[in-house]
Amino acid sequence: FLVRDTRHAIQEAAKKPCFVCSKMGATITCSETGCDRSFHLPCAPQGECVTQFFGLYRSFCWEHRPQQAVQTHPRQNRTCSICLDTVEDKASYKTMVCPACQDAHFHRHCIQRQALHAGIRFHCPCCQNQELFVMEMLTMGIRTCKRLAPSWVSDPAVGPSEQRHGRCDASVCLCPGGRRHTEEEGPWNLLLCGSCAAEGTHQHCSSLENSTNSWECKGC
Questions:
Q1: CATH fold of 3-60
Q2: Checking DSSP bridges between strand 105-107 and strand 190-192, what pairing results, if any?
Q3: pLDDT digits (tens, 9 = 90+) for 178-197
Q4: For 82-116, how does the pLDDT look when each residue is reduced to its tens digit (9 = 90+)?
Q5: What b/e sequence results for 125-143 when a residue is b if at least 16 CB atoms lie within 10 Å of its CB, and e otherwise?
């Protein structure tokens, strides 16, 4: 029965178009009752969808995804508490806020990478709150791991504010300039994984179209 159900699920998914890229084979459907939007997991960041990696592992489209209920004070030139680059002045899909101190802002891809590196010690990079912070991040689609010690403890070369990943990790890098070469657009534009930001690829090295602006590594 399990094999039959699995085959049926695969056959049904093959008939569903992804609302982000319009291609067939979208295996994830929004968990909101009455919503029939389906999408591929790699298309989720581009479509601003959320998948919760705990409990029932529910997924939501851009319209029905959970929203942060935080009150922040307007401030000019607000920066990410992790990479120090500019972020939006309010909570959004790409900009997240600590629910405890409500002052720490960070890019989604920055806090996702922090979560994977920090393991069970994952907490707000500013106020150090853990319980409320982790539950909020899980609800908003941030994936954590069971790593007992942060990566910067096991590997001194890695720090909690490690610089942005900057190399192509494709099995075969085709770029004439090498794995660390990148251009602002075109086949040698370096894309980072939209979930963990810990792996990258040149568009051409992963056979991605020049218009592609998001990508997921095999591990995610």
A1: Herpes Virus-1 (3.30.40)
A2: unpaired
A3: 888 888 888 898 888 876 66
A4: 888 899 888 899 999 999 988 899 999 999 988 98
A5: bbbebeeebbebbbbbbbb
Confirm if 60 and 30 have CB atoms less than 8 A apart.
Answer: yes
Is 164 or 218 the better-scoring residue by pLDDT?
218
Short-list 156, 172, 169, CA closest to 198? 169
192: nearest Cα among 217, 175, 161: 217
Q: In sequence order, what are the beta bridge partners of 38?
A: 29
Look at residue 163 and tell me whether its pLDDT is greater than 70.
Answer: no
Q: Supply the pTM of this predicted model.
A: 0.65
Closest by Cα among 82, 166, 80, 66 to 116: 82
Domain-wise residue ranges, the chain: 3-60, 67-152, 168-174+184-210
For domain 67-152, the CATH architecture is: 2-Layer Sandwich (3.30)
- Spatial CB neighbours of 12, under 8 Å, sequence gap ≥ 6: none
> What is the rounded CA–CA span in Å between residue 74 and residue 72?
6
Residues β-bridged to residue 97: 105
Structural tokens at position 114: 């922090």
